[in-house]
Every structure is written in structure tokens, then in C-alpha cells.
């Protein structure tokens, strides 16, 4: 087994994951490059997730694998995915931190690939990648994560060429289960704002600093099952239409708060963030401010929506024609 050239932490978050966590622990412990520590934060599980995780780790240790030190924290009350991941990330001490869901299965060389990549790319703060989708039994679904998320050729090209910030302002393309980050990014990114999920926040900050990288390589088996808290299930046509004509509620106000939180964070980073990224973040705030202020009456929305369309900001920050259609058709 190769020795790591970095100290590597694994941030594993669990919540009622007894069904799959042993297989995931096994895949983490049997890497071609060993992690330094495995930081497990359990979000107040009501099953035996933690006991099964400890048992799986002990079996790998007793089998002679170079297992990482296991550090377990059990939350006294349910925090939710983002807050629990933030807690796990804050407890990690490694130079590199690799994120892990409880129900996936790592490819044996995932850590080796991450360590090698960061050694070769000292400016990168975050690496994310593709994944093979598998069913609950671990059988391949014949689909990869980028395809399931409908990552387009232009989006992928932008990510690969260091132009990730603008496409990430439109939608998140970086899945936390495939992420590895430098400790330096965590020092800048934590705590995670209230309106953000951990992976999209880390990706947005790294991209704003031109420090996000992507690999088309599949790094994990990404399990799809009914209990996924966040997954890559493809939306049906009927679901899309139902969502399109559903009440707007507080969604646009929520999106506006997210945009404001991001702009505030980038301003606080100062010279680390290029002027163009600050400008784009400000334009995103302006876009969502217009959308949040649209009247409840559909007919009265037509003119302000058309004006906003002509700025080009729907295309850049609002999912293009899909966002425009939502603003014209959704109930107020």
C-alpha cells in the first residue's frame, strides 16, 4: 500500500444509515492510499448506524488493513444534512478532506487519485468528479452522475477550463459525495450560511477564487434508493409540470437570500476573489431581487419578466427559458 503524501481526513456523515454504512466503511478502509483519520458525525440516528460503523472499521483493522483513526461524534439532536456536514468538516484535521455519504461505495483508488491530483495542482482548493450510479443492491444502473444531472458539454467544458463560477451561479454541478477539498478552503468557508447546502457552498467559493477542478473520472458508486436525503434521481415529466405550476411560496425570497449570502462572503474574501466574480455575484443578487419582486398576478409579470430576459440574466443565473417559464406560469 502506498503512503499518503498528505494527511487526509474523511468526513463521513450518517443518519439512520445502518443498511449501507458497513459497506461504505469497508470501501473507505480498503483504499490503495490510506486516510489519516475518519471523522464520523452521526445526526441523531435512531437505529444502530454508529455501532455498525464501529464494527466495520474494527473488522478492517483486524484484517490487517491500514485503517484511519476513527473519531465519532453523535449529535444529541437532529441538525440536518448541511449542519451535520459542517460539524464533521470542522472536526477534520487533515491537509486534505474527502467528503463521504453513508450509503455509497468508494472505488479503491479514490484517495490515491485525490492525493495525486492535489500534489500536481497546488492552486486547486476543491476537486469533484463523476460517479457510477448503482441501485440499492449495488448493481450498476448503466448511468453516470453527470448524465443523471444533465451536465451539458458547455457546462463541463467551463468547469474543466477554470471558468466554473458562472455555471455554478446558475445551478450546482458539484456533488459533495465526490468532493475532496484542502483544509485552506474550509477555513474560508465555515460556517455554512443558513440558506446553503454544504457542497454547493464549498463549490461556489472555490469557483469564485478560480480554485475548483473537476474530473470526468467516476470516483464512487453513487447509490440510488428510496431513503436518499439528497440524490440524483431524474425528475419525471409529470413532476416537472406539477412543479412548474405550483405556488411560488417563499422560493424566490429564499434564492435571493442565498445570492446575498454569497456576495457578502466573496466581499469578505477581498483580493482572493477576482473583480469579475464579485460583479457576477452582484448581478445574481440583482436578478433574484427582480424575480422576488414580481407581482402575484401573472399578466402583470409579463413586462418585468421580459425586461429581465433582455438583460441576459435568466440565461446566466436563472436556468434560461425554464426560469422564465416558471416566472410566467407559477401561481403567486
What does this structure look like?
The chain is 46% helix and 17% strand. With 332 residues, it is an alpha/beta fold. It folds into two domains: 8-223, Spore Coat Polysaccharide Biosynthesis Protein SpsA, Chain A (Alpha-Beta Complex), CATH 3.90.550; 237-329, no CATH class. Strands 1, 2, 3, 4, 5, 6, 7, 8 and 9 form a nine-stranded mixed beta sheet that branches. Strand 6 and strand 7 (140-144) form a beta hairpin. It is globular and about 70 Å long. It comes from Xylophilus rhododendri.
Q: What is CATH's topology name of the largest domain?
A: Spore Coat Polysaccharide Biosynthesis Protein SpsA, Chain A
Number of domains: 2
Q: Strand-residue fraction?
A: 15-25%
- The percent of residues in helical segments reads 40-55%
Instruction: Report Rg.
Output: 21 Å
> Helical segment tally?
15
- What is the overall silhouette? globular
CATH classification, class level of the largest domain: Alpha Beta
Poorly predicted runs are none
What's the SSE pattern?
EHEHEHEEHEEHHHEHHEHHHHHH
Count all strands and give the number: 9
Oligomer: single chain
| Alpha carbon gap, first and last residue | 59 Å
Class from secondary-structure proportions: alpha/beta
CATH architecture of the largest domain: Alpha-Beta Complex
